[in-house]
Design brief:
Blueprint (H helix, E strand, L loop, with lengths): L1 E8 L2 E9 L3 E8 L2 E8 L6 H11 L4 H12 L1 H47 L5 H50 L2 E2 L3 H13 L23 H4 L2 E2 L3 E3 L6 E3 L4 H20 L15 H6 L12 E2 L6 E2 L10
Parallel strand pairs: 5-6
Antiparallel strand pairs: 1-2, 2-3, 3-4, 7-8, 9-10
């Protein structure tokens, strides 16, 4: 059973991967470029967390990540038994359902065959009614199995749909409570900054961003005092904020930033021409290595902040 724990410190990620075996604990730690792995034998009857204490201390694992790992190890036995119970219940349900399906189809086919065979014995048309009976049995059995499956799976689907509907209604109700207001870009920036300052560890401001990169202002209404009358958009990668007229920028920016991050991780250099004074992101390199599928329409540039890209062209540095 493997489990991964992560913590973010700016653009540096700290990860621990644990593998719990019957007689061994596998642990892999990574923070930035630093990596360390170990296989620890469980040869004594002591709590799991005690086996890892020395490894965590030696590698200066952050307190936040250390707490997560220790809490997980303390509950590892309960988790194992819970997983086994869930698996057993799922297996029994699946087997029971398959047995019902098989029985339903089998009985239908058998009765269809017997009925058709009986008619063929009475009438000189063998094997017409036998074949028709078989076909009818298969069709009826298949339909019955389908009806049972719908009846079995529909409640779960209904629960999911009801949950989604409740969420949509709650968001709509929340939006109704707040007046529509006019805000400026800087006000949105300040509201998001204030919102992110109140977030717990491990939760990021990207929870404000919808799939189309628009900002979900229902979560910011209590800070702004209302819902903005126009949409604003945010990059999930750089957190830059844009107005409606520039809504295409954050979508392209996220694609380019992800491609750049992956390129830097694997190549240990920026995709940029060495003597380019504008520090443009070199799309040719990203396309050649398949980090991008197509050339972006917007030109992005490297900023002075740890590989972050921007759509704003940096000012030319004066020589001499």
């Amino acid at each position: 059973m493997k489990k991964t724990f992560s913590a973010n410190f700016g653009r540096v990620t700290e990860d621990i991967e644990l593998g719990l075996e019957e007689k061994m604990i596998y642990v892999h730690y990574k923070k930035g470029p630093y990596e360390k792995s170990a296989c620890i034998l469980k040869n004594e009857n002591k709590p799991l967390e005690e086996y890892l204490n020395s490894f965590l201390d030696e590698n200066n694992v952050s307190d936040d990540l250390k707490t997560k790992v220790i809490e997980y190890l303390k509950n590892a036995k309960d988790i194992n038994s819970q997983h086994w119970n869930d698996f057993s219940n799922s297996l029994m349900k699946a087997l029971s359902l398959h047995m019902v399906f098989a029985f339903t189809i089998g009985i239908s086919v058998f009765l269809g065959y017997k009925g058709g065979n009986l008619l063929d014995s009475l009438l000189p048309l063998y094997p017409l009614f036998t074949l028709l009976g078989l076909a009818a049995g298969i069709l009826f059995g298949g339909y019955s199995a389908y009806a049972l499956a719908i009846k079995y799976f529909k409640p779960a689907a209904d629960k999911i749909n009801k949950h989604k509907q409740k969420k949509i209604l709650a968001e709509a109700e929340s939006a109704k409570k707040w007046p529509e207001i006019d805000v400026y870009l800087e006000e949105v920036r300040n509201a998001i900054r204030k919102f992110s300052d109140s977030l717990p560890k491990g939760v990021y401001r990207t929870i404000l961003v919808n799939d189309d990169n628009s900002i979900d202002f229902s979560q910011l209404a209590h800070i702004l005092g209302g819902i903005p009358s126009k949409k604003f958009y945010m990059s999930k990668e750089t957190y830059d904020i844009f107005e409606e007229s520039d809504k295409a920028i954050p979508v392209e920016m996220d694609k380019v930033q992800r491609a750049v991050d992956l390129y830097v991780k694997e190549k240990h250099e920026y995709p940029m021409l060495q003597f380019d004074p504008s520090r443009r992101v070199n799309y040719y390199q990203l396309l050649q290595e398949h980090y991008l599928k197509e050339r972006p329409e917007i030109q992005f540039y490297f900023t002075d902040v740890d590989g972050l890209v921007s759509h704003i062209k940096p000012p030319q540095k004066k020589r001499g």
